[in-house]
Specification:
Elements: H1 27-33, H2 38-56, H3 58-68, E1 72-76, E2 82-87, H4 90-101, H5 106-109, H6 111-116, H7 121-133, H8 140-156, H9 159-169, E3 180-183, E4 199-202, E5 208-218, E6 224-231, E7 241-247, E8 258-259, E9 274-287, H10 293-328, E10 331-332, E11 335-336, H11 341-372, H12 376-407, H13 419-426, H14 436-449, H15 451-465, H16 473-488, H17 494-520, H18 526-541, H19 552-559
Parallel strand pairs: 3-6, 4-6
Antiparallel strand pairs: 1-2, 4-5, 5-9, 6-7, 7-9, 8-9, 10-11
Helix pairs in contact: 2-7, 3-4, 7-10, 7-11, 8-9, 8-10, 10-11, 10-12, 10-13, 11-12, 11-17, 11-18, 11-19, 12-13, 12-14, 12-15, 14-17, 15-16, 15-17, 16-17, 18-19
């Protein structure tokens, strides 16, 4: 039956414009990569284009399948043998193979590549990670902890341990890969790790025996797990915690003894397994010196928080891309979606937030690269940047996902699209690796105990705002006010200090973000950086008058996204 003009819907899709490669479409990411070494670009270029194509293509279906068909815990065999096996949908392993082929952490830990790209290996690897996690955020968590396990083994393990374990982490086959995990949280304390009760006693064969329960264990199927436990006669609090390496399969080939009561049913990131673990005389190797457990583990925690921020900007970028491409193809009230001023106003805000989060996060990755090469200033700066980006980008990712879902209307709420999955997955980012209030307390500790970190932060703000003070006087004025406040906070009583520090960092972070955009600005990226700076300038001024909406061209500039 022919549909007459009168029967056709009022809003229809026009000629479709979408991306088939998330790397070749992303001018912001490509511009950033262009600032890396020519050797690094040449080595990773084909991998970036490949993972960009996968993320825009087959990974979508694989990710949706892995999300809908989550891991299953198999307690026992048909004959009653204890099995404690996690069974995954086949899509999970295909996604893992894709991650490994992108070399997102192979470039960091292969001995030859570590040496060749030692000044930028984290940046090279995280580019693949951002592209990958635009499609699959759940599995990016086990990948992150595997990278973290490699970091601890490389930095703190003895030569024999490195030779035995690192090659297994570098496998290019997902089913052969040894993945990592870290177990901190217990029912007794939650974020208060000092309340941990898991005990470690010395055994005769060089092992310790762990007894206790860990409450949130992501990547519970890991082959290599770092566990905080308390040795006999250890003092209370975090000073009494030591770090232990638990291997799922012992060196003699037998399965280590621990029990997984259940897998957590989570709101999002459903593709990977988060469970509870009960240790009962579980064999573990002491890792590092007794009582130094939390200090060593924080090295991994810092990396995990950086992964959390990469996940945040990835989910924000994907949400923006979905809303943008939808409205490019959408006719609303006889006009293209982007021709409506209210929609353009939303894109101005969301794209500006993304650009600022992008450059803040990548400045932190750069600090990690320099820190790992012995730059103490960058190490001090990394100390305060990590909680800053974890706090800020995770909050923004939830907001951006929600707003983009609304921009797509009812379609954005339907499970046939990727938007509900993005929204569910993003919810975890402000919670894991330290909830927002816990992170604010960490920032407060940095303000009190690491004055050098704060000095370096303000030095960078001054360095890049001062030459632009005439164009952005409100940014410089706000920075001056904040520097004075930073000196006042440590002298307040505790309650006032906690409350003031949250307000302080909520004002400081956007100023630092603007400085970072000015730091990296060039003739190409000024296309999106300049309107983003204008947005923040207006926001900081708090203008109450009527603002002229940005143009359609400005929205395209801010998105910096090429459709086919």
């Amino acid at each position: 039956m022919e549909i007459t003009k009168e029967q056709k819907p009022a809003t229809v899709l026009s000629s479709k414009r979408f991306s088939h490669n998330f790397y070749s479409s992303d001018k912001i990411l490509q511009n950033y990569v262009s600032k890396l070494s020519e050797q690094g670009q040449n080595y990773m270029a084909d991998k970036y284009h490949w993972i960009g194509e996968q993320a825009a293509g087959q990974m979508n279906e694989l990710s949706m399948d892995a999300d809908k068909h989550g891991p299953e815990l198999i307690h026992r065999t048909a004959y009653g043998e204890d099995k404690q096996q996690i069974k995954f949908h086949p899509s999970y392993w295909t996604l893992m193979d894709i991650a490994l082929k992108s070399e997102m952490f192979y470039v960091k830990w292969n001995a030859a590549l570590m040496e060749e790209f030692k000044s930028e290996r984290h940046r090279l690897g995280f580019v693949s990670g951002q592209l990958y996690s635009m499609s699959e955020l759940g599995q990016y968590c086990p990948i992150a902890m595997t990278d973290g396990a490699a970091r601890l083994v490389h930095r703190y393990g003895d030569e024999a341990m490195q030779e035995r374990i690192l090659p297994k982490i570098l496998s290019m086959d997902g089913k052969e890969l040894f993945t990592g995990a870290m177990y901190l949280t217990e029912k007794s304390g939650g974020s208060d790790v000092g309340k941990n009760q898991t005990m470690a006693t010395v055994a005769d064969d060089g092992y310790h025996l762990l007894n206790g329960e860990k409450w949130f264990c992501s990547n519970v199927n890991a082959e290599l797990t770092f566990v905080l436990a308390r040795t006999e006669a250890a003092p209370a609090g975090t000073r009494g915690l030591s770090l232990f390496l638990v291997e799922r399969i012992l060196e003699d080939g037998t399965r280590n003894d621990f029990h997984i009561p259940r897998i957590k049913e989570k709101l999002g990131v459903r593709s990977m397994a988060t469970g509870e673990v009960i240790f009962k005389d579980t064999k573990a190797r002491l890792f590092g010196a007794p009582g130094q457990g939390l200090k060593i583990m924080l090295d991994m925690v810092g990396l995990m928080r950086l992964y959390n921020s990469i996940s945040a900007i990835s989910s924000s970028r994907r949400a923006l891309v979905e809303a943008y491409q939808h409205l490019l193809n959408r006719v609303l009230f006889d006009k293209n979606g982007l021709e409506h001023a209210l929609i353009r106003d939303q894109f101005e805000e969301l794209c500006s937030l993304y650009a600022a989060d992008f450059y803040l996060t990548w400045r932190t990755v750069e600090a990690l690269d320099h820190s790992d090469n012995g730059n103490q200033d960058e190490a001090d700066l990394f100390r305060i940047l990590v909680p800053m980006i974890k706090y800020w980008t995770s909050q923004n990712s939830v907001y951006i996902a929600r707003e983009c879902m609304e921009l797509m209307g009812g379609l954005g709420y339907i499970e046939d699209t990727v938007m509900p999955k993005i929204f569910r997955d993003a919810q975890v980012l402000p919670i894991w690796e330290g909830s927002s209030n816990v992170i604010v307390l960490d920032l407060l500790r940095a303000l009190q105990r690491s004055p050098r970190s704060v000095e370096l932060l303000f030095a960078e703000i001054t360095q890049y705002l001062e030459p632009n003070a005439e164009q952005y006087p409100e940014l410089k004025q706000r920075a001056t006010q904040l520097q004075s406040q930073a000196e006042m906070i440590p002298h307040m009583d505790r309650d006032a200090m906690e409350s003031a520090s949250k307000q302080f960092f909520k004002r400081l972070i956007p100023i630092y973000q603007c400085a970072m955009m000015l730091r990296i600005r060039d003739d190409e990226n000024s296309q999106w950086i300049d309107p983003a700076l204008q947005f923040f300038s207006k926001k900081i001024q708090g203008e109450t008058g009527f603002q002229k909406p940005v143009s359609v061209e400005t929205v395209h500039d801010l998105m910096a996204w090429v459709t086919d």
